[in-house]
Amino acid sequence: MIIEDDPRLRRGLELALSRLGYAVRAAGTGEEGLLLLQESKPDLVVLDVVLPGIDGFQVCRRIRAAGTTPVIMLTARGDDFDVVAGLEAGADDYVVKPARPSVLDARIRAVLRRMPGAGEDVREFGELRIDTSSLTVALRGEQVPLTPTEMRLLLTISRAPGRVFSRQQLLEQVWEHDYLGDSRLVDNCVQRLRAKIEADAANPVYVQTVRGFGYRFGPV
Amino acid sequence: MWPGGLRARLLVAFVLVTVLGAAAVAWSSARSASSALAAGAEQQFVETVTNQITANAAGLTYPPGQSTLDQLASAVGADTTVTYQHLRSTTGPDTDLVTDAVRAAVQHGDSLFVQRIAAQGRPWLIVGTPVMITSTTGARTPSGIQVYAVRDLTGVQRQIDSLTRSEAITTGLALPLAVLLALVAAGSVLRPVRRLRDTARRLSAGDLDARAVPRGADELADLTVTLNVMAESVQTSMAAMRRMQDDARRFAADASHELRTPLSTLTAVMEVLAAASEEMDGDARESAQLAIAETHRLVQLAEDLMEVSRFDAGTARLRTEDVEIGGAVRDCLRTRAWTDRVALSAPEEIWSRCDRRRLDVIVANLVGNALRHGAPPVRVSVSGTPEQVWIEVTDSGPGLPEHVLPHVFDRFYKADEARTRAPGSGLGLAIALENTLLHGGELTAGNASSGGARFVVRLPRGREDT
To answer: Do B331 and B454 fall within a single domain?
Structure first.
């Protein structure tokens, strides 16, 4: 689903993405988009930051509150504020305008791939239980809803507990970005993940920071 | 030569004027007082002598004998001698002091003669007079008797001296008073001067709100008002200039920003068009391909304009992280498929703290420029010291002509349009330079000894900012 206020750009993105094989629904305002979200349950939302009425960040926050639908933000280059605010609102990734459809396509595919193929093992760490076959995570027996990106991040680092992953490695393995990837994507996602699975996000047990290097799972 | 400071000069001038004035007053008053004293003493002495002679003249026997002379001398006073032809009274020990000048004046004249002399280290007053005979007809003739009296003026002199001394002391007392007054006066002049100086200093340091408060209605208050008016007009024109500059920058930023949405739409549909153009024939196909290529160029131009306007507006920020420079340059070349046309030499791993995206922009613009304007092979080499990182981009073309060198980083400067194979935005090198400066580094253009153009980026090797 695309939420973009400029009708021509909205139509242009619709044309380009349809041609690439996506079934596209488009909305011109945040309000319209949120209604359409409930109705059509898209796999992914491409969201412009600048919208009349409620802005892109608010829309993103509401999508996050409502569920785990992945969001890719369309931002202006150099507008660092937009990027930071977008990531804090819970966006999974962002693409700088003007975006080539091929680039957007690659990002969309990468985000969708983050719902990984079901594994077979169940990993248990303390009070955390990760079921790789049903792709569910439970904390003290309660289900924790994770977005695809959060899930893939957790699966990636919990595969090798104790091993340190650099932000660059995580960008390549989880986000499938090239060397110019934005390490703030990783930091923001880690924070959201901690808020969901850690008892105390300020003193994390599962996703730990290794200063100057990156992140590591455990040791629990 | 005047002493240095205004304060010292004012002080010296004031003290000089005061002391000289006091001294002149003291001197003239001492002088007039002493001459009055001397005149008084003289008049008194002359009167005594004259009165005594008048009182005794009537009783004189004529021609006088020795006793008559002695009698007259003792009547007139102690230091008196009376002569008549060759006779001379015996009294008067100091009468030797009577000068020839007095004697001559008395012998040839018919009136009293007075002279002041200094002898034996003391001041003296000498009075000489002939005794006149008044006949019954009223005619006066000299009797031949002459009276000479001498008086010691030491007492009077002492009075004069003490007067002079007290005047000198008064003058001396005026000196510290003058210094004190001069300090106060200098202070009252210098305080507004200092205030003016402080205000001028703040103004020149860029604080255009600085103003001095004028006090009173003197020339300094005038100067203060003038300074304030000047500051006001400088501030006004600065504000106007800044507003114009801001307007121009905002216009550039707004214009490129406004281009973003239509360019996004064009970018979105160009790939659809590109795919469709495969099935078009001849002219239509070429037209579509031209439109596509020019759209990409337009996008790049707008991007570059926005980037430049961010530097102009001062909103460009560094987002630093630890970057392996050689690897980053390699990635930059690889993603743009330049690896086979560019030889990279990065013999060692060099980690430095910098903005990965901006580093990519710098390298991409320099290498892109070398590929467009120079000739292959293009060489990129990365080297470093503990403090610096150097990235050198050299091509094998003819190099940069002398007249081009000062302008290579100018915006939209194009040295030789005809030689350009694929047009750039004309902003690439300017952007590379701005990005380098933002890192606190420098970018220089020149020619390699082998002849090709050579660009050298020097970046400070940033440390982890903890």
So the answer is: yes
| CA–CA min distance A202, chain B (Å) | 19
Chain B residue numbers with beta carbons less than 8 Å from the beta carbon of A6 are 261, 264-265
- Tell me the chain A residues in contact with residue B310 when contact means C-beta distances shorter than 8 Å: 78
Question: Which CATH number covers residue B235?
Answer: 1.10.287.130
Instruction: Give the chain B residue nearest A11 (alpha carbons).
Output: B265
CA-based Rg of chain A, rounded to a whole angstrom? 17
pLDDT of B447 > 70? The answer is yes
**Residue B68 CB burial class (10 angstroms; 0-12, 13-18, ≥19):** buried
Bridge partners, A76 (sequence order): A97
Alpha carbon distance B299, A123 (integer Å): 48
Task: Give the model confidence (pLDDT) of A43-94 as tens digits.
Answer: 899 998 888 888 888 999 999 888 888 899 988 765 677 778 888 888 888 8
Task: Report the candidate in B175, B170, B215 with the shortest Cα–Cα distance to residue B193.
Answer: B215
Q: Report CA-CA distances (Å) from B425 to A77, B33, B301.
A: 17, 101, 5
The token duo for B85 is 């032809």
| Spacing of C-alpha B249 from chain mean position | 39
What is the domain extent for residue A153? 122-217
Check A97 against B357: CB less than 8 A apart.
no
Q: What's the complex ipTM?
A: 0.77
Smallest CA-to-CA distance from B14 within B138, B189, B223, B269 is with B189
Q: For testing the chain B interface, which of A15, A179, A187 should be mutated: the one with the most B CBs within 10 Å?
A: A179
The alpha carbon of residue A112 is apart from the nearest alpha carbon of chain B, in Å, by 21
| Distance in angstroms between the alpha carbons of the first and the last residue of chain A | 40
Q: Are residues B276 and B327 in the same domain?
A: no
The CA-CA-CA angle for residues A131, A73, B299, to 5°, reads 140
pLDDT of residue B465: 47
Residue B185 lies in a domain: no
Cβ contact B330:B367 at 8 Å: no
Total domains in the fold of chain A: 2
**Domain check: are B289 and B224 in the same one?**
yes
The two structure tokens encoding residue B314:
């001062």
Contact list in A for residue B265 (CB cut-off 8 A) is 6, 8-9, 11-12
Q: Could you give the 3-state DSSP secondary structure of residue B341?
A: coil
Question: What residues make up the domain containing B346?
Answer: 318-460
Instruction: Tell me the per-residue pLDDT of B7-61, one tens digit each, with 9 for 90 and over.
Output: 788 888 888 888 888 888 888 888 888 888 888 888 888 888 888 888 877 777 7
**Are residue A62 and residue A16 in the same domain, yes or no?**
yes
Nearest CA to A209 out of A146, A195, A194 is that of: A194
Domain boundary among A95, A113, A131: A113
Q: Which of A8, A13, A9, A35 is nearest to A24 (CA)?
A: A13
* B328 chain-A contacts, CB cut-off 8 A: 179
Give backbone dihedrals phi and psi of B446, rounded to 5 degrees, phi first. -170, -165
Examine the pLDDT at B362 and tell me if it is beyond 90: yes
> Within this chain, do residues B371 and B303 fall inside the same structural domain, yes or no?
no
Looking at the whole model, is its pTM more than 0.80? no
- On whether the CB atoms of residues B252 and B312 are closer than 8 A, the answer is yes
Q: Tell which of A2, A5, A15, A187 to mutate to test the B interface (max B CBs under 10 Å).
A: A15
